[in-house]
Amino acid sequence: MSSSVSSREPAPSSARLSTVVLDARDAHELAAFYQRLLGYVVRAEEPHWVLIGPPPGTAGTSLAFETEPDYVPPVWPTRSPGDQQMMLHLDIEVDDLEAEVARAVAQGARLADHQPQDDVRVLYDPSGHPFCLWTGTPS
Questions:
Q1: Taking the C-alpha atoms of 133, 91, 87 and 23 in order, what is their torsion angle to the nearest 10 degrees?
Q2: How much is the pTM?
Q3: Superfamily grouping for domain 16-70
Q4: Nearest by Cα to 127 from 12, 30, 60, 21
Q5: Which CATH architecture has domain 72-139?
Q6: Among 66, 68, 97, 106, which one is least packed by beta carbons within 10 Å?
């Protein structure tokens, strides 16, 4: 199996990425945070699972949250072997980086100590998942 990404046209597929799922100790608590942050609505919920997405008629990616009682937050950046590694993070584009960072923190996020770029801010959600707020550079 090759480890490089092919630039060839992909074969037809009926597969479509529909949702990104994040584990948390409390799925409902984390869903509520992202609902406030993104202005999303609840699309479905069960006792240990919640699906949120953009309001009807607007584009965006759905997010789901699943309760995992033994959830361990990742360490970012990784500091030592054996740290729980980050498996993914969300990139969220914003128009006003400073204002959206302040709003995210007011909603329950916390700013990471390490900030790798001027036009990106790394934050942690209430479950400890890193996510990035970023703004495009004016052309």
A1: 80
A2: 0.83
A3: 2,3-Dihydroxybiphenyl 1,2-Dioxygenase, domain 1 (3.10.180.10)
A4: 30
A5: Roll (3.10)
A6: 106
